[in-house]
Design brief:
Elements: E1 7-13, E2 16-21, H1 22-70, E3 78-82, E4 85-89, H2 96-121, H3 134-156, H4 164-174, H5 179-198, H6 206-229
Parallel strand pairs: 2-3
Antiparallel strand pairs: 1-2, 3-4
């Protein structure tokens, strides 16, 4: 919960407190600046609105986890949004089926959002000339948001902690092996994948490198927690 100390409370949903980390606003300003370079104030407005709506979708993703967890009697006191996504503070659970369903619920929310946006976009007739720029702005925004939601869903399925894919893999393994061994296998596979992201620095992709480092640290933290409880062995 230490990260909440650097976060701004923005309200609560279903009794869950919602926070935005202070660094999120730096990301928002950065993207708006990128938009300004592309198309002045219009570009800044587009990038700012897109970023805000995307993080609203990420918040919905986290509430997918939270609401599914509630079905298994697991409560969440808070959720926080920060530049690399969202974090729902959930109590630990060792039941594989419960962890599987509550984890899958997050990416599923993004798939549903993308599906709804696809249906909305299909109603537009892009072959017809529309007066003004407002229509193109709306269509482009919804199209980008649909694509981003699909990306979020797929990216989160990478079998690496802290992504949902790592927890899905762990829960699937735990249906056959014990929880500690399943965590160890999932963490080691995730760390191998994270190492691939570190090569992003070679291709001038700093964000990939940052994500890789974050994956390595989070995966190790998960393993340390499980080992601290007692039974995993390297």
């Amino acid at each position: 919960m230490n990260s909440l100390l650097k976060s701004l409370p923005v309200g609560s949903i279903f009794g869950v407190r919602v926070f935005i980390h202070s660094t999120f606003f730096l990301l928002l300003v950065w993207y708006m600046w990128e938009g300004w370079d592309v198309d002045g104030w219009l570009g800044a407005a587009f990038y700012g609105l897109f970023t805000s709506l995307l993080f609203a979708c990420i918040l919905a993703h986290e509430f997918g986890h939270i609401l599914a967890a509630g079905r298994f009697g697991i409560n969440s006191p808070a959720v926080i949004l920060w530049p690399l996504g969202g974090i729902a503070f959930l109590s630990r659970i060792d039941k594989p089926k419960a962890e599987f369903f509550m984890t899958v619920a997050g990416p599923l929310v993004n798939v549903v959002i993308a599906g709804v946006l696809f249906c909305v976009l299909s109603l537009f007739d892009t072959s017809t000339a529309y007066p003004g720029y407002a229509f193109l702005f709306t269509y482009s925004l919804l199209h980008e948001l649909m694509t981003a939601n699909l990306f979020v869903a797929v990216f989160n399925l990478i079998p690496c902690f802290p992504m949902d894919g790592g927890r899905i893999l762990r829960s699937a393994l735990a249906m056959k092996f014990d929880y500690e061994k399943s965590t160890l296998i999932a963490v080691r596979l995730g760390q191998a994948i994270a190492c691939l992201f570190l090569f992003g620095v070679l291709f001038d992709r700093l964000m990939l490198t940052v994500i890789g480092v974050f994956m390595l640290m989070t995966a190790q933290k998960e393993l340390d927690y499980v080992e601290g409880r007692g039974n995993a062995r390297l």
